[in-house]
Amino acid sequence: MSQRDFRVRPESIIRKEVSDMKNMLNFKNFSAEELMGILELALDMKKNPEKYADSLKGKKLYSLFEKTSTRTFLSFATGITELGGSYFNQLWEDSNFVLGEPVSEIKYVCRNVDIIMARLVKNETVELFGENVTVPFINGCDSSFHPCQILADALTILEKFGSLNVKLLFIGAKNNVFNSLVEFFAKMKMGTIYGLTPLVNNTACGPDFYEEAKATGHYVELDPTMSMEEAKAYVKDMDILYTDTWVDMEFFNNPAYKQQKEETLAKMMPYQINDELLEGSKAIVFHDMPMHVGFEISESVEKKHLDTILDEAENRRHAEKAVMYTLIKNYN
Questions:
Q1: How confident is the model at residue 291 (pLDDT cuts 50, 70, 90)?
Q2: Are strands 240-243 and 167-174 parallel, antiparallel or unpaired?
Q3: 154-175, pLDDT tens digit by residue?
Q4: What is the DSSP letter of 131?
Q5: CB 196 within 8 A of CB 224
Q6: Domain 11-146+316-331 belongs to what topology?
Q7: Beta partners for residue 87, in sequence order
Q8: What CATH number matches the domain at 148-312, 3.40.50.1370, 3.20.20.70, 3.40.50.10860, 3.40.50.12780?
């Protein structure tokens, strides 16, 4: 695949393109050009950090966590700090969101900060924030979408391949990561995502979501009953093989979920990313982490592709810096 240099467009162009944008709940209200502008900005921020060291000086980020987190907390906290801003982190259970009327709580928080990022369990709660914030809001992950993860994935694809025009096979559950991948590829109209998803999680995406994505020609839904021999034929033609946990992190160690977890793992074990599946393929492997090694990904594949997976995880920080910068600069 051909390599090419990405030239960063002037800040004024980026600001004009996203001038009407305020929140990032998903990619619905962003054009392909706006998303590419964010990615190009992220590349420049990663290459020239000193250029942006004071770009958000004095700006304050409020980060709210209803779900456990390593990458989302660390990437947003270090990201805003590297841009000269500061962050204030709070757990949902320690806040009055668990007690009070949520709209007034949202509006109070907005009086104190310049931007909000929340990692929440339900998509409905994210939508509630989006409808009521008076400062830019970023969905740090919910039950239906994970936009920041996919921007990090796209940034990694640009670094590895020089273009978004790749073939990516996702094997696992129709979950938040998968939904945002489908939304992204359909929006960008570059590259193709192939979905082998025997497991379907409960998300807010209706049937039209997938049908509309298919209509773009950039999402192909594979038969979930296909044999692994058939799947191997697809794998050989892919640039990227992507997997994610089969069991949501909040349920993985929950005793009440034990039986369903065991049933899910038994159903999905044939779809593990392992050496046998990758035989004859030059595909690199993506995983959004945390990984359950020995389940969705084998230990040997995890070791061979760990540097790529860590590149992907590190790029959360750079992608999110570009998102925060773009939303704050165009709001002010």
A1: very high
A2: parallel
A3: 999 999 999 999 999 999 999 9
A4: H
A5: yes
A6: Rossmann fold (3.40.50)
A7: 61
A8: 3.40.50.1370
